[in-house]
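tool_call: predict_structure(chain=1)
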Amino acid sequence: MGARFVEDAAQAVLATAKELLAKGLVEGTAGNVSARMADGNICITPSSVDYRAMTSEDLVVIDPSGEVVEGTRGPSSEKLLHLACYSAFEEVGSVIHSHPVHATMFAVARKSIPACIDEFTVYVGGEVAVTQYAPSGTHDVGEAAVECLRQRGAALLANHGMVAVGKSPSDALHVTAMVERAAQIVAGAAALGGAVPLPDKVNTDFAGVYQFLRTN
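tool_result:
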């Protein structure tokens, strides 16, 4: 199949950006949302615009090389992270970079989030790993993320936050919220002796479900 794209990408990106804020997964102007369009270009949130005030006129369209083709604002400073994901994965229609508190705790500690909840593996693919560290806004951030996203719906960006991929902005938002919830649960379980991972066979079977959902 050709590269997956999102119908009404601008509307979906804007609605998801505002929901990302409403869910407490970002703060102020942090984080960014994008979606691939039918023509192969990318609709992405702008740099340094508060989600509360953001409108569709603020969104930016960039081509696969990162050049602005539509919009008056600058694209997100993390555009290279988004472009790396689209270039690597034709099945991905949307990318969300966020800074949820609990998931970022794991990113800062450079500890992966284990797969210890059934639905987590079904929708994320399994344990969420931490990337190699790379400075924000660089090509290296995207390259590091891609390595962790080949069999997963999310990756933790070392000392930074997280990135999630999906078929659509709402799908990537669901992954983001699920990873944050799992991070909170795992952190809390530490007080009870630590989280117990799911059996290997269960994780393998559920990971197969994830791969099917990701590519179909």
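agent: The CA atoms of residues 111 and 141 lie 17 Å apart. Proceeding to next step.
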